[in-house]
Amino acid sequence: xxxxxxxxxxxxxxxxxxxxxxxxxxxxxxxxxxxxxxxxxxxxxxxxxxxxxxxxxxxxxxxxxxxxxxxxxxxxxxxxxxxxxxxxxxxxxxxxxxxxxxxxxxxxxxxxxxxxxxxxxxxxxxxxxxxxxxxxxxxxxxxxxxxxxxxxxxxxxxxxxxxxxxxxxxxxxxxxxxxxxxxxxxxxxxxxxxxxxxxxxxxxxxxxxxxxxxxxxxxxxxxxxxxxxxxxxxxxxxxxxxxxxxxxxxxxxxxxxxxxxxxxxxxxxxxxxxxxxxxxxxxxxxxxxxxxxxxxxxxxxxxxxxxxxxxxxxxxxxxxxxxxxxxxxxxxxxxxxxxxxxxxxxxxxxxxxxxxxxxxxxxxxxxxxxxxxxxxxxxxxxxxxxxxxxxxxxxxxxxxxxxxxxxxxxxxxxxxxxxxxxxxxxxxxxxxxxxxxxxxxxxxxxxxxxxxxxxxxxxxxxxxxxxxxxxxxxxxxxxxxxxxxxxxxxxxxxxxxxxxxxxxxxxxxxxxxxxxxxxxxxxxxxxxxxxxxxxxxxxxxxxxxxxxxxxxxxxxxxxxxxxxxxxxxxxxx
Length: 573
Prior knowledge:
By secondary structure, the protein is an all-alpha fold. The protein has helices at about 5-35, 35-45, 50-60, 65-75, 85-105, 115-130, 135-160, 180-195, 200-210, 220-230, 235-240, 245-265, 270-285, 295-315, 320-330, 350-380, 385-420, 425-460, 465-490, 500-525, 530-570.
């Protein structure tokens, strides 16, 4: 068996195609998802049990635990699934893969999902050229899905062809009589073979060939299956390489789940092997220790018992697994987990009044996301590195889309709350929260518009003179103060007395500064201090900043009005 440079480049190309499909699908999902797909996924994973059953069902249908975990990684990366939800689905995928093993053992049938790849590309490609952004995004989802599985299939086909040359592994029989060390050696071999072949089913077939030829015994084969469970996590880890921190944590959770399972099975290895052998003997009439005919059924039983028991043991510790992966996979300082709802993703509480408390907390979080967006704009204004400027600009554009989706979800949630039994005070709070949420979304729009102005400046290679830079920073500093006061007040709405005088004073300063700077700009143009194009972008920035200030005042006034209305109603009582 020869493996040359062309074979290696083919392997590399397959890996790139797989990663590109993952990236395309994940980014397109964010465009089309809105709140509908998020709601469906939330319903499917609302409890640990439903999450596990979702993982089992998907894996049983597509007959690939690797494919399921890659999809879960892409959902987490797109912000459609939380880390906690993803862990339970991954657990279910491990159980679902046992269904595949039984189908192969008993029926010999396996769906090859990659056969659907080219038809899917045929469907998705025309949609990519649609003028409607929604259809275009759906086309990208379909294309990404097809390329992902096409890449995964090519990855399996382009590795060294060990599966059709099992004689390469005959040397392994010399490592079978070393006691517990042999079990560890074959566990490692099972993991390495699964990484190399990129298919736990193919590794299982190899294991059966080795047993049939008498190279290894029943226990060594079981150890290889344990290794396969660890090796199969590599596909998810590969998919997470280009993903965000949450997706990397989901891949790490998959690895930790399987490693913990392997550890406890190794600790009870002999009793488990004897138990499975007894069950097999009662079914087949032969013991896998003495007859190779019984080994396939014994390994299928072992695989099933191991995965189900592992889920039943660890499903109660999902939160602890989440904490472990959060400690192991740290969030980068320059990366923000901006997507997703934090407080209202699990649905309404038992009473509308308590649901309003959830909504208020969520809007506080939502407001802080708009602060982060504005800070990103400040950073963009100073950025001189081409690559960093482009990356930050794309992040702001992505955040603006996410803020639109979140605003729609919050509005839908508050509408649902208002349909329940609410007090007069509660009804007023709904109106106030809707108004605040709408203005926060407008803050995000303004930040995005500022980034677009800075993009025009960057593309036209326009340099502001020091005076222009100082003016913009003066405006930014005033907005910083207004942001701080407004959102401090928003996040602490417990006090009856709300003083917005300082915010109104800052707004007056912003208005005065805008008027002054526009007059100064006209003089500077007459004196030819800078170009007309520079002037247009400069005035755009100043104007958008003033609009930002207006929306912050709207939020402050909404909070004040609500408090005064509540106090007045209490006095009337």
